[in-house]
Design goal:
Length: 292
């Protein structure tokens, strides 16, 4: 079995490649030029002949045009090229597509989609493209990923910023200064996300178009940062101040309802939270400044 992976060098993409290879799938990474247009992507499909295409690519920052190009334009190009092929599409979505919901109620796939901000809105646009393609007969599924952490976490994420801050605070005998850490999130290990992708590629096509990928358990962001400080083995205090991000304020509680993916793919997250937090620290480049 062969899979073509977009975003293979990204945070989630690197883990997805490893999981697919571990599942016996031959992986071909795609490059940016491959998705310059539907004709270019059709040429890649004709050359590679994949049984599945996995889209781990996405744009997390930028203006409206940049976010739309990466999160709507790329899926649209992929879908247009795939419509007349037998290949399956596994597309990575985001919990940011949901937006606010009632506190204490896990978010199911049929929850209202009211994203806050351009990122969530454009990711939802990409999901809409995949949904439309599924209606036209394309075997496709969207794995809506909650808050991924683990080895290689992006430096611009909360965990990545915390890792850099821990190193600076330890080096200068200072405290770690961050915004409010009250927001409850469903932190899922990137390696677990990758195993969900492998299940979606190699297993039967799910009946649902969208499946949540999370742990089903919520933790305040403070718990993640505290676990990282513990993993670093340094004596660093945490100071919370400022207004924090608009999305944290607008979505104070968000946890995945993961019953559907368990029923459809037999998948669940298995990596312990503390192991994930420790992996963020141990793989961050800043950790060497403290360890040395």
């Amino acid at each position: 079995m062969r899979a073509l992976v977009l975003g293979a060098r990204g945070f989630l993409g690197t883990h997805v490649v490893d999981a697919l290879i571990g599942a016996g799938v031959e992986v071909t990474p795609a490059v940016r030029a491959d998705v310059s247009g539907a004709d270019a992507f059709r040429a890649v499909l004709a050359r590679v002949r994949p049984a599945a295409v996995v889209n781990c690519a996405g744009t997390t920052a930028g203006d409206a045009a940049q976010l739309s190009a990466g999160n709507v334009g790329v899926p649209a190009t992929v879908v247009e090229a795939l419509l007349h092929t037998p290949a399956r599409l596994v597309h990575l979505g985001s919990a940011a597509e949901y937006g606010p919901g009632p506190a204490g109620v896990p978010v199911a796939e049929d929850a209202p989609e009211r994203p806050l901000g351009l990122y969530g809105a454009t990711k939802l646009g990409g999901t809409a493209v995949v949904r439309a393609a599924r209606d036209l007969g394309l075997p496709a599924v969207v794995l809506r990923v909650f808050n991924p952490i683990g080895p290689g976490t992006a430096p611009d994420s909360l965990a990545g910023r915390a890792a850099a801050g821990i190193a600076r605070a330890a080096a200068h005998g200072d405290v770690l200064r961050l915004g409010p850490l009250d927001a409850v999130r469903d932190f899922v290990d990137a390696r677990d996300v990758a195993s969900a992708v492998a299940a979606a590629v190699t297993g039967p096509l799910p009946d649902r178009v969208v499946l949540n990928v999370g742990t089903g358990r919520g933790r305040p962001a403070r718990e993640l940062v505290t676990a990282m400080v513990s993993a670093a083995g340094v004596d660093v205090g945490i100071q919370e101040s400022g207004a924090g991000s608009a999305r944290s304020a607008g979505v104070p509680w968000q946890v995945a309802d993961v019953r559907a993916i368990g029923a459809e793919l037999g998948w669940r997250a298995t990596t312990p939270f503390e192991e994930s937090a420790a992996a963020v620290w141990s793989t961050a480049v800043w950790s060497t400044a403290v360890a040395g």
